[in-house]
Design goal:
single chain; alpha/beta; Aldehyde Dehydrogenase, Chain A, domain 1; 6-stranded mixed sheet; 5-stranded parallel sheet; 15% strand; globular
Length: 346
């Protein structure tokens, strides 16, 4: 396949996936069945979250977006394909899809190690891709056991698993991602609507993604009344069993330890300097001067995935889980990495 055929296939896939933004009522469609039953295999994968992930990808896979993304690279034709191993995470639905399309759209072969937490959805979407362009069957291998016969590796995991990845894959060309967190900087002048939009960054996928906001920076003396009121539209999240259990557990820990905290009834806020907060909780930290805060954040660039707010270079409220195709996780350009490996092999 040449590049135009690959782009055309993914454009058609995007159009096809839009059909799954809402329930179809079909009793025979295998992808629809997986969407409806995903929560049986992973309690965090609610129908709403799975459909949201599919819709987000459907909206990104347009010819205009794909061309805009890939036109910045010189992608050669008729060069030996790489066999690229992809170790996928499973914290949110389809979290490894960007790595996969990066490999395929550069003309390479993907050897995928699915996460046990997300091993049903992607195979069904790939079946849709094969129906559109059967040649992709030759470019995609789903590994049942240990990854083998690869030229390069892309792996995503926690800080702990990344050490194992470095040990096992360190001798190969590799791109290994670790834990990151996202933060929001508030000025105190945000509108009710902006704070409600921030709720999407906090609660979508139950806060399990690296693009979910886990830490707030607020001006000294900030009062959280308006913040909690704006987020009240998300209060039903407490009725989700796993989220509710985490809320109860963390609240109990705070109470037993005597940790000062704020409680909205569905979200806990605790003053804490660390970026990572547990599910159903947010850390916050006061700042005196925005300039000094910006300097402080500059020292944490390797720990922060997204910076949300109204400041310069910040992502708008509500947009962290809507990255563009050219917004690379951890700032690591996957496409450029693959092209460099192609040159080396050639």
């Amino acid at each position: 396949m040449n590049q135009n055929k690959r782009i055309k296939a993914f454009t058609e896939l995007g159009t096809e996936l839009l059909n799954y933004s809402e329930p179809s009522g079909s009793e025979t469609d295998s992808l629809e069945k997986v969407i409806l039953t995903a929560h049986h295999y992973n309690g965090w994968f609610t129908e709403e979250n799975v459909r949201n992930a599919i819709q987000a990808w459907a909206e990104k896979l347009t010819e205009e977006n794909l061309q805009k993304w890939l036109n910045k690279y010189e992608i050669p034709e008729n060069v030996p394909a790489l066999n690229v191993g992809i170790v996928m995470a499973g914290n949110i639905p389809l979290v490894g899809f960007h790595d996969l399309i990066s490999v395929l759209l550069t003309g390479n072969t993907a050897i995928i190690k699915l996460s046990s937490d997300d091993d049903k959805l992607l195979p069904e979407i790939l079946e849709k891709l094969y129906e559109i362009e059967p040649h992709f069957r030759q470019q995609i291998i789903i590994a049942e056991g240990t990854l083998q016969n690869f030229d390069a590796i892309i792996a995503t995991g926690s800080n702990n698993t990344s050490r194992y990845f470095e040990y096992y894959f360190g001798k190969y060309p590799h791109m290994i991602r670790k834990n990151r967190n996202s933060v929001a900087v508030l000025s105190g002048n945000e509108t009710h609507e902006e704070l409600t939009q921030l709720g999407k960054d906090v609660f979508r996928y139950f806060g399990l993604g690296c693009r979910n906001v886990s830490k707030l920076y607020v001006p000294k003396g900030y009062v959280f009344d308006e913040f909690f009121e704006s987020l009240s539209v998300f209060s039903d999240i407490i009725h989700h069993n796993k989220y509710g259990n985490n809320y109860d557990y963390n609240k109990a820990i705070y109470l037993v330890n005597g940790d000062a905290h704020l409680d909205s009834g569905f979200l806990l806020l605790k003053e804490d300097k660390t970026l990572a907060s547990p599910v159903a909780a947010l850390h916050y930290e006061f700042y005196d001067e925005i300039e000094s805060l910006q300097e402080n954040l500059q020292t944490k660039t390797n720990e922060i995935q997204c910076l949300v707010g109204n400041g310069e270079n910040a992502i708008s409220f509500g947009k962290t889980q809507e990255p563009e195709l050219w917004d690379y996780a951890d700032g690591l350009d996957t496409t450029q990495f693959l092209l460099e490996q192609e040159k080396t092999k050639a």
